[in-house]
Amino acid sequence: MVALGDSGLTVSSIAWGMWRFAGDDVAAARMRVEAALDAGVTLLDTADIYGPDNGEPFGAAESLLGRVLAEAPALRDRMVLASKGGIRMGVPYDSSATYLAAAIDASLSRLGCERIDLYQIHRPDLLAHPQEVARALDDAQTAGKIAAVGVSNHTPAQAAALASFLTVRVVSHQPEFSALATAPLFDGLLDQAMTRNMAVLAWSPLGGGRLADPQDERSRAVVALLDHKAEEAGVDRAAVAYSWIMAHPARPIPIVGTQNPSRIATIPDAYTPRWTRAEWYAVLEASLGERLP
How far apart are CA 275 and CA 157, in angstroms? Predict the structure, then answer.
């Protein structure tokens, strides 16, 4: 378990993501949620935009989770619930104070909850002044609708700008981060997270499927090293990929996206591998395609 930045919340060091949480079968959906909780995962990450990518309406993933929680209310007490807003179909981004207030209320309604534990601005709205965004988030936090504030897909400068206008802390970043998407190591995001005690939630920790099915020389070079480590540790490639992320001192939290209950049950395997510095850097060099100086 790790602290979720300065939020006062404690969460599992691996999260379960609900981008592909879809369908009308509430019993099957509940089985997936319970599999995550039973695997020791307490941080569940969703968003209001999750739905259209699965051919479903805006808000569908939140609505499905709401139906699960309506059927089994006790599950809510076992999780730290994270959601995101600020994306509008066809706009694409809207973090105006008016829209965010409405989006937070809509998410709460779909989820059937009184509070979202971690509310994240999904992507930065370049037409919204950070002071306006901060006002909406402060108001929601004061009203008890959200417990903590985070950002997703924001640069360190964008996160700092928002933080400068908030009365509460920005407690988390959510960047793409994997052995194939290493930008947070170099663009200052992980440095900011460590400096400001922010949690880091790593989305697409398997490189958007490229680590599962490598199609180019770079990916195959990374996978070869991961597979060697997996054989040594007695776990699968995915577990090793998650553990590589978790080895960084910022203690990034990989967001595991599988919707298969049997695969969800294997999430704790990621705690098994132990990386030497030489092994960890070898993966990074393979990803970069060059030796570090």
Answer: 31
